[in-house]
Amino acid sequence: MLKSINRYIINEYIKSLFVVIAIMLSIILLINLLDEFNFFKSKKDLKFIFFIIFTILKVPNVLINLFPFIVLFGGIVFYLKIYNHNEVISLRVMGYSNIQIILIPALTSLVIGYLIVFLIVPFSSSMLKNYEELRSEYNETKNLVFVNETGIWILDKNENEKNIIRIEKISKDFSVVNQVTIYNYDTSNNFIKRIDADEGVIKDKNWQLNKVHIITANKENYLNNYSYNSNININELKNVYKNTETTSLLNINKEMLILEDKGYSTVDLRIRYQKLISFPIYLLAMSMLSGLMIINLGKTSNYLKYGSYGVIISIIIYFLNDLSITIAKSGIISVDFSVWIPIFLIILINLVGIVQVNAK
């Protein structure tokens, strides 16, 4: 009997989540379609189907980022529904306490969190990576920087030529590069020359290369010094992993090792790692917060009232997340700990709420 009631609570809670997901998905689709249209509006030969494809590739990752807030609003919908239909009285008759009614959806959220991290995030990260690669093909002046086991690769292009640059290693302050190879092509992808250098010094967009070997179709030259003017600025070079959401928990450790080997900071990837491992706990805490809010603030049928509370809470939590990470990047607190600070605060609020519920 109790198992069937537990299943009922879980099913009703999941239904409420799907209602919120449907609403959020509609908003996300509309916003992303407008964003893609704004980006591609100058591409007159681009068919509408491409706008749909680009939007679909991006949406799963956005939805995952919003999932803690989906859980919060889904919980509000669920708890208001069972109170408005007087189902709580029936659950109390069956021996369920307020804490048990809150814990069942919370534990369900925990399980959903693990499923998202291990099954859906690898898929959404791969889609986002494909999205960024496809979108970059339609931006003629966009430069690309990425890192793999073979080195740091840069696509450096302008209206007249395109250069593919490979760097073996870069210094921590991004001023010195070692073992540089530059492949120079024209706009029709015809090979012009290859430049090899043992090392170089970067000053803004000017690279001073040393011990240079230049190979063209007709001859070879050896120079002690060579000046290369790049379109890549220092921030583009630093922010190679500006979008860490293209990595999943399954490959993030490998990516960190590669970055460290090439001289890059792994701060952003460490933050991404902590976000992924804390994600299920985050969902559990948000689910409990929604239940405790309904029980402690009053069980009315006013969805607008609690929806407003949910919006305010979401804004505060979002601000705390950004603030703690910003403080961590400045070196005041640990980067690994910064992701957990908002979650610990939510858990602390939940503990206070549980004490109040037990007193009722």
What does this structure look like?
This protein is of the alpha+beta class and 360 residues long. It has a seven-stranded antiparallel beta sheet, covered by helices on one side. α1 packs across α2 and α2 runs antiparallel to α5. The mean pLDDT is 83.
Give a quick account of the main beta sheet: strands, pairing sense, barrel closure: 7 strands, antiparallel
- Please count the beta strands (DSSP E, at least 2 residues each): 7
| Content of β-strand | 15-25%
Kindly report the oligomeric state of this protein.
single chain
- Average residue pLDDT: 83
Tell me roughly what share of residues is in helical segments: 55-70%
Count of helical segments?
Answer: 11
Our count of domains comes out at 2
**Widest sheet: strand ordering:** 1-2-3-4-5-6-7
Radius of gyration: 26 Å
The secondary-structure element order is HHHHHEEEEEEEHHHHHH
How far is the first residue's CA from the last residue's CA?
26 Å
Stretches where pLDDT falls below 50 for ≥5 residues? none
